[in-house]
Amino acid sequence: MRGFQILMIIVCLLLLSNLFAQHDVLTQVFTIDALLNGLYDGETTIQELAEWGDFGIGTFNALDGEMVAVDGYFYQVTSTGTVQIPSPEIKTPFATMTFFESDSRHDLQPRLDFHTFESVMDSLIPTQNIFYAIRIKGSFCAVQTRSVPKQIPPYRMLSDITASLPVFHLEDVKGLVVGFRCPPFVTGINVPGYHLHFLTEDRKAGGHVLDFVIQEAVLEIDEIRQFFMILPEDETFYQLDLTIDREEELNQVERAIPDE
Ligand SMILES: [Zn+2]
C-alpha cells in the first residue's frame, strides 16, 4: 500500500512538473524571414494558437492586421485602427505565444520612451541569451503604432509595403504593451531584441509599437528558456531561399516609421 502511495505521489509530481514546464515555453509559427519573403498565408488557426499560449503577438493571413493575445483573448488591430475579435478559424503566417507567468515586477519611470525602456529592461535582465515575455500595464502620454492592410496575391515582399503603412498616434491612453525580447541568435527565425504590440484598456485601438512615452506603468517580465517552432507543410515555404541575411530589412520593417 505504502509503495502504491509513493508511486502515485511520483506520478502526480511528474504531471505537475510537466504542466509547469509547458508554461515556460515560447512557441512560434513559421519564421520571420518567411514573412519578409512574402509568405503571408499560414495553416495554424487562432483556436490552435490558443493551445500554445494565452499571451502573444503576430499577424493574420494576408497580413490582415496586427495580432495581440492577452489573458487568452485574441484581438485584431485592423489597418483602419479599429480592433475586432478574430474568428477562431482565422489563420496566421507568423505568431509568437506563451503562457504568461510573471517572474519579476518593476515600476517604470515617467517619460520613459521605447528606446530608453530597452536600456532599462536590458539592465534588469540577467542575460540577453534567453527569451523574455514582456507585459507593461499603465498609462501612456503617447503611443505610436502601426498596422497592415490586407494584402492581395501575388504578394509583395514585406519591405516593399512597410513604407506606406497606416500609423496611429494615440495620446493619453491607458493600455497594455504585449511582446517579447528574443536573444540575438534568433536572427532569421524571430525578431532579435524587442518586438512589442499595444492594446488600449478599452480594447478599441492598438497595433505594432513604433514608439511610446510612459506616464505611469508597471513592467512584468516572464523568463523563458524553452523554444518550440511550428513549420508549414507548404510548397511555397519549401521553395523559399532562406539563406539570405535579411537583418537590415527586418530593422526597417520593425522599427522604421513609415512616411505619412
Ligand atoms: Zn509586430
Order of helices and strands: HEHEHEEEEEEEHEHEEEEHH
Q: What CATH first level would be assigned? A: Alpha Beta
CATH H-level superfamily? Hypothetical protein, similar to alpha- acetolactate decarboxylase, domain 2
Number of strands: 14
Describe the structure.
- There is one protein chain.
- With 260 residues, the protein is α+β, with helices and mostly antiparallel strands.
- It has one domain: Hypothetical protein, similar to alpha- acetolactate decarboxylase, domain 2 (60s Ribosomal Protein L30, Chain: A).
- Helices cover 23% and strands 38% of the residues.
- It has seven helices and 14 strands.
- It has helices spanning 2-23, 32-36, 46-49, 114-124, 158-161, 235-239, 247-255; strands spanning 25-29, 44-45, 55-59, 66-70, 73-77, 83-84, 91-92, 95-98, 104-108, 131-146, 167-182, 193-200, 206-224, 226-230.
- The strands form three sheets. Strands 6-5-4-3-8-1-14 form a seven-stranded mixed sheet.
- Strand 12 and strand 13 form a beta hairpin.
- The longest helix is centred in the first third of the chain and has 22 residues, at 2-23.
- The N and C termini lie far apart (74 Å).
- The structure holds zinc ion (ZN).
- Zinc ion (ZN) binds at residues 57, 66, 195, 197, 208.
